[in-house]
Specification:
single chain, 151 residues, 4 helices, 81% helix, elongated
């Protein structure tokens, strides 16, 4: 549902808003263009995270999560959330100099960027824990094999 929703926003809502913005007299506002670009990028971040979480959930269902191949699905989540954090800071920086957006709103957007950076760090820590669990699982399998040979 999340994937379908983000695709709907990217394919239908953003173009409709862009057409509406272009049809206004005068040049398009920088905040409106920045917000549309941010919506597209945020959609891409959400789509990457959704697909990777879907793949990891499939691995959990198959009991293959503690396989070294699982970490390849966590890396894109980390990088996409970090890119989303940088895009959020860029959006706040673009909106800050004008008087159209209240300073408190710019502060909230910057706070959201910090929140995204924190989430990226948390997912990185979880990836490291997954790698440790994978190594522990491999060591346990080796010890079971060795113990089976002794018995």
């Amino acid at each position: 549902m999340v994937l379908a929703g983000t695709l709907f926003v990217q394919l239908f809502m953003v173009p409709m808003i862009a057409v509406n913005e272009v049809s206004r007299p005068g040049a398009p506002d920088v905040p409106a263009v920045a917000l549309l670009a941010y919506l597209v990028l945020a959609g891409i971040v959400i789509e990457i995270c959704s697909v990777c979480v879907w793949k990891l959930a499939t691995r959990v269902a198959r009991s293959t999560l503690f396989d070294p191949a699982s970490s390849k699905y966590v890396g894109p989540i980390i990088w996409s959330i970090a890119a989303g954090s940088l895009a959020t800071f860029a959006l706040a920086a673009l909106l800050a100099p004008g008087e159209d957006i209240a300073p408190g709103m710019v502060l909230l957007i910057g706070g959201f960027g910090i929140l995204l950076a924190g989430i990226s760090v948390i997912v990185f820590v979880l990836r490291q824990l997954l790698l440790q669990a994978t190594q522990t699982e491999a060591q346990a399998a080796a010890l079971r094999t060795e113990l089976g040979g002794v018995i």
